[in-house]
Each structure stands twice: as structure tokens, then as C-alpha cells.
Please model this.
Amino acid sequence: MESLAAYPGARVVEVRLRVGALSAVIEDSLQFCFGIAAEGTPLEKARLVVTIVPVVMHCAGCDADVELESVQSFRCPRCGAPCFDLRQGRELEIESFEIEDGDGMEKAGDAEIGVTA
Amino acid sequence: MTTRIVELRRGILKKNDELAAGLRERYAAGGVLVLNLVSSPGTGKTAFLERTLRELKAKGARVAALVGDLETDNDARRLAASGAPVRQINTHGICHLDAEMISKHLAGWEGVELGGLDYLFIENVGNLVCPSSYDLGERIRVALLSVTEGEDKPLKYPTLFNSADAAVITKMDIAEPCGFDRELALRNINEIRPGIRIFETSSKTGAGMGEWLAYLKEERRTRKFE
Model:
């Protein structure tokens, strides 16, 4: 909502989130709660698109970043050695949002990165 | 009608992470080792902490504790019996502590200055899910598991166990009647967090406390707090 303040009157069409497999967030619950929380706000009709970010550990033995197949075992899928060094998988971030023109948008300036028709 | 995409790349917990980073600096400046204790309700966090505070105090260490619960100050009163300063944080329905709550309760805590402490313990709200997402600026996150809970708890809650720096198994005095499979529990913890230090303790008999206290002392030394 804070970021939306720059676009008065805009309606949000889509919100894209990146959620790590180790972030303690369940997509179904998130979708459910988003619907409730968005009611009566410019996000009311927005789609919530969630990308699950897999866990990546650094395997010292292989000297490589390796993706885990599940979070039930923190071992290197290549060599089987235990992995200690987490490189990815705890993300919980808003990647981007897509908005539909509102009255005040021209005033907000056009410093955005991407514009689609 | 045109639409546009605004790139944000912003962490949803950014505010908490920033506050936690500030707290971490304050703890380091004060020379206090801060631990965050996390477990399910009923694991025995309070009993374990009560014993830890008492034994550390007996050794002359300067200790204090913040304790989080949804309601009541029962735990704070129990812990205060150790003689250490204790402050209750009531979250009124929130299932975890966050950095802002810690910050607020450190402010105006009568008689307690971070610079005057060796150890500050934070007993989180009993919950194995949400506390794993909220950094409190702690140096050591301790995951506790009791022998009555089932050896597969680390597999069921990998998010929390993987983020822990140390694991404590509590209630070892009743391990046998509970049919606790020690080897399996140790294996499961190691599967989720390889190489983690594991302490097998009983707050009732004091078993394992010596090793735990030696670890705390060593952590203070190696993390350059003394």
C-alpha cells in the first residue's frame, strides 16, 4: 500500500510474490488471506501470483550451489554430504505489481521500469 | 485502458529485518550475548530458562530475560524467582515476537542496561512456525524439543529447525517411559540442520546443564564478548 501511494486512483491488477520454500508461508493460506485483506482496497480484484523459490545450498565438497529436492534433508543431491550454507530459499518478497491507470497517475511521474499495453 | 508493471523487489519483512539489524548492533555494542528460545507450547522453555538463569547467576553472570506470551505474566513471575530481571511481553493474540516488540520492551526497563548484561534470553511465544521468520537480532537461535513430542518434529518443522544455531532436547528424565527414540531424534535434527550442537537436558534433574552452560560461556568468548 505504501508503494501504491505514488499512483493515486490506480487499481492493482496483479501482485507477484517470490516465496522461498523455507519461508514458513503456505501459498493456499496466503491466497485465502490476501482475498480477505484486500477487500475494500485498490488491491481488491488483484490476482496474487506466487513463485516458489527452491532452496539452494552451497556444497563445500562439490564447491557448487545445489538445489535441494525437498526440505526433509539438507544433503547435497550430488554427493550426499550434509550442507551447511544456505544461499536461497528464505525469500518473502513483493517482486512487482501491475496497475491500471487512475486519474492521478500522470502526476506521479514515469520512473517505472516496465510499461505494458 | 493501459496497465503498467512496477518492479518492487521488496522484502515483506523488510521493516522487521531493519529493526533487527539495529538491535544486533546495540547488543554487540553492549557486549551482551542474546539468545532466542523457540519451541512448541509445552516443550518446557520456561523451566529450562528458569534453571539456566539460576545456574548462570550462581556463577556470577549478569543475566536477564524477556518472555513472550499471548496473555498472562505467569512465566515472567516464574522466571523472576531466579532473581534475574525479567520482563513479560504480552502479544495479545500475535503468535510470535517481532523486533519492534523487543525494542519497545528494552526501552524503559527499570534497572536493566544492555551494557550491564552478559546474557539476555528471549523466550519466544510457543509456536514452531512464525517465529522462524522474525529476526530479533539474536546471535543464537535455540530450537527446543521435548521427548514427549515425537522424534519427527524437526522433519515436520524444517523451516524453524534449519534456522536454529543450537538444539535442546528437554525432559530427558522421562525419555524412557515415553519411549523416546534418542538416536532417531538426533538423526532427524541433523538431517535438517547438519552439524548443529544438540544438548540433551532435564530441567528437573539438571542433566545436560553443565554442557549447555559451557557452550554459552564458549560462545561469549569466541564471539568476542569478553
Observations:
- DSSP finds eight helices and eight strands in chain B.
- The interface with chain A takes residues 1-13, 129-130, 132-133, 155, 158-160, 162-163, 190-195 of chain B (CB under 8 Å).
- The longest strand of chain B covers residues 3-11.
